[in-house]
Amino acid sequence: MAGEFFEGGYPPPAFYFTVTFGNGSQVPDASFSEVSGIALEMETEAVVEGGENRFVHQLPKSIKHPNLELKRGITMLNSPLVKWCKDTLEGDFMKLIVPQTIVVKLNGADGTVLRAWAFINAYPIKWDIEGFNATKNEVAIEKMTFAYTYSKRSK
């Protein structure tokens, strides 16, 4: 029965997570402040049955997922992650787009992996720098958005 609950019987906090790219090695600059877009949704098709006015059939069609978004403070241009984004988004399609697997892991307080999601054949599609404001004392934030073929949860 104890294995059914997380530490202390409470849901895990969402602030202790890791992100890895490609072969699973931790890229030195892969520390992100926020991850969003971990979702699956089944698309349905409405089919009206002739003579039946009480309801409309909702038939399963396909699985869709939003783009994966990663936010962090702006980092150095010589990092492998930034190089991948630059090559893909600033390469004018002269270089091949190189998809990679992105793995997001939610960790417990002791560092054990509680949940993990793999995003297969991911590649950057947007690289956004949040606005600058001289009246605020905030860190400059970049947001990287990735498309992917499919995702799978491994825990």
Q: Would you kindly provide a written description of the structure presented here, covering whatever features stand out?
A:
With 155 residues, the protein is mainly β. It has a single domain (2-40, 66-153), classed as Pnp Oxidase, Chain A (Roll), CATH 2.30.110. Helix content is 6%, strand content 42%. The protein has one helix and nine strands. It has one helix at residues 80-89, and strands at residues 17-21, 34-36, 41-47, 57-64, 68-73, 100-107, 113-129, 141-147, 150-153. The strands form two sheets. Strands 1, 2, 5, 6, 7, 8 and 9 form a seven-stranded antiparallel beta sheet that branches. It has a two-stranded antiparallel ribbon with strand order 3-4. The longest helix has 10 residues, at 80-89. The model has no long low-confidence stretch (mean pLDDT 84). InterPro entries: CHP02241, Phage_T4_Gp19. Pfam families: Phage_T4_gp19. This is Phage tail protein. GO terms for molecular function: structural molecule activity.
What structural keywords apply?
155 residues, mainly beta, Pnp Oxidase, Chain A, seven-stranded antiparallel β-sheet, two-stranded antiparallel ribbon, 1 helix, 9 strands, CHP02241
